């Protein structure tokens, strides 16, 4: 998480410049293989997308960001590797759900190699679970000198061991090697703040099927993370119930109606449900932006960048911009990366078109190569 070095493989491909990021979502498993130059990843340096791929998951295999059916997910991962032809089996696995705690934490200044050892003693009263049942990490975001001397500023990340084990067990059952576990929010910040946007204060909003990840970054550094237990699948389910139709048909109806458009009377109920579920998500985002601005005077979020499958709902960006009074744009995670042109290695055209869904696996690869 942010660099779970205890899972890093001794002979992994990280050192050889090719890294595979693996995102286990509610409806898909997605992976991206990146190749880095001699200097490794940087906000300005080059990185080449060698391969990307995805395989659908059946309903219930992953629940709320956590693997529920190990054998099912493992089978999908084996299919993904067979279909895509990744060059190795070392992977960086992403996590991110309500069972992962991310919060601001200032610590007495200490060398970086001492922080991990000191964390259990510093945070035992801050966690909803026992320290021994959690995996801890700390991401330093700055330093300050206060009344009691120099202090580190950063984000505490605590994930239950059960959550991490559920996902890594499925990965290992597929014959893959998890060399690192990392937070999806940090992955977003690495890939989506490359280029000019990295100099601004931005909110990165990845809307998945059941979990939405919100990461606020300033000059490319994560400053605030929030996991929201809702996503695009919740909208689809609401439409299916309102119209009494299948989820597949509801998905098409959802994308046709969107939010804020005029609809025929027979689809009014669906439009109302789309608006109700979407409004809950938008209000949660707006409240988070307000909270961040109140705690960071003069450093409010300037731009919201949307990624994830749920971000493609027509009218969502405009609605969020209106409610939050903040500019909103759709992220293009491949825009700052090179695409491999080698035979059989170029990304599938459909996935390039749908690159909004690739932000987290791409960002996971950046984390391991750092």
Characterise this structure.
The chain is of the alpha/beta class. The protein folds into 3 domains: 5-97 and 161-195 and 336-369, Nucleotidyltransferase, domain 5, CATH 3.30.420; 100-159, Dna Ligase, domain 1 (2-Layer Sandwich); 232-328, Nucleotidyltransferase, domain 5, CATH 3.30.420.40. The protein has helices at 70-84, 112-123, 161-173, 184-192, 232-243, 247-257, 268-295, 316-324, 349-353, 359-369; strands at 18-24, 28-36, 47-56, 62-63, 66-67, 90-95, 100-108, 134-146, 149-160, 177-183, 201-207, 212-218, 221-228, 303-307, 327-330, 338-339. The strands form 4 sheets. It has a 6-stranded mixed β-sheet with strand order 10-6-1-2-3-16. Helix 4 crosses helix 10 (359-369) and helix 5 crosses helix 6 (247-257). The longest helix is centred in the last third of the chain and has 28 residues, at 268-295. The chain is globular and about 65 Å long.
By CATH, the topology of the largest domain is Nucleotidyltransferase, domain 5
| Strand ordering within the main sheet | 10-6-1-2-3-16
Radius of gyration: 20 Å
What sort of overall outline do the alpha carbons produce when their principal axes are compared? Answer: globular
The domain tally reads 3
Helical percent range? 25-40%
Find the CATH superfamily of the largest domain: ATPase, nucleotide binding domain
Largest sheet, strands/sense/barrel: 6 strands, mixed
The chain-level mean pLDDT equals 89
| C-alpha termini separation | 13 Å
Q: Helix and strand string, N-terminal first?
A: EEEEEHEEHEEHEHEEEHHHEHEEHH
Structural class based on helices, strands and sheet pairing = alpha/beta
Count of β-strands: 16
- Give me the number of helical elements: 10
- Report the sheet-strand fraction: 25-35%
Uncertain ranges:
2-15
CATH architecture of the largest domain: 2-Layer Sandwich
CATH class (first level) name of the largest domain = Alpha Beta
């Amino acid at each position: 998480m942010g660099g779970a070095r205890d899972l890093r493989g001794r002979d992994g491909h990280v050192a050889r410049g090719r890294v595979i990021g693996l995102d286990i979502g509610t409806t898909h498993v997605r992976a991206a293989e990146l190749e880095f130059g001699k200097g490794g990843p940087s906000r300005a340096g080059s990185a080449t997308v060698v391969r990307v791929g995805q395989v659908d998951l059946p309903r219930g295999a992953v629940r709320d960001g956590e693997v529920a059916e190990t054998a099912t997910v493992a089978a999908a991962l084996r299919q993904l590797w067979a279909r895509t032809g990744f060059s190795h089996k070392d992977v960086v696995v992403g996590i991110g759900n309500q069972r992962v705690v991310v919060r601001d934490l200032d610590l007495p200044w200490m060398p970086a190699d001492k922080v991990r050892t000191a964390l259990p003693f510093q945070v035992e009263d801050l966690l909803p679970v026992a320290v021994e049942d959690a995996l801890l990490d700390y991401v330093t975001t700055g330093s300050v000198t206060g009344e009691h001397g120099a202090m580190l500023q950063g984000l505490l990340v605590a994930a239950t061991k059960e959550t991490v084990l559920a996902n890594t067990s499925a990965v290992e059952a597929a014959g893959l090697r998890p060399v690192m576990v990392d937070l999806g929010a940090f992955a977003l910040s690495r890939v989506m703040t490359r280029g000019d946007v990295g100099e601004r204060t931005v909110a990165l909003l990845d809307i998945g099927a059941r979990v939405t990840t919100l990461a606020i970054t300033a000059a490319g550094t994560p400053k605030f993370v929030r996991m929201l237990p809702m996503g695009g699948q919740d909208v689809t389910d609401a439409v299916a119930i309102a119209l009494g139709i299948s989820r597949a048909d509801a998905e098409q109806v959802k994308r046709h109606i969107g939010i804020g458009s005029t609809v025929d009377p027979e689809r009014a109920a669906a439009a109302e449900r789309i608006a109700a579920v979407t409004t809950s998500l938008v209000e949660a985002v707006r409240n988070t932006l307000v909270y961040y601005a109140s705690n960071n005077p003069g450093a409010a979020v300037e731009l919201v960048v949307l990624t994830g499958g749920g971000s493609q709902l027509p009218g969502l960006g405009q609605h969020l911009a209106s409610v939050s009074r903040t500019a909103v744009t759709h992220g293009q995670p491949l825009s700052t990366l090179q695409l491999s042109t080698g035979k059989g290695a170029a990304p599938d055209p459909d996935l390039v078109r749908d690159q909004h869904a690739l932000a987290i696996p791409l960002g996971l690869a950046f984390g391991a190569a750092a």
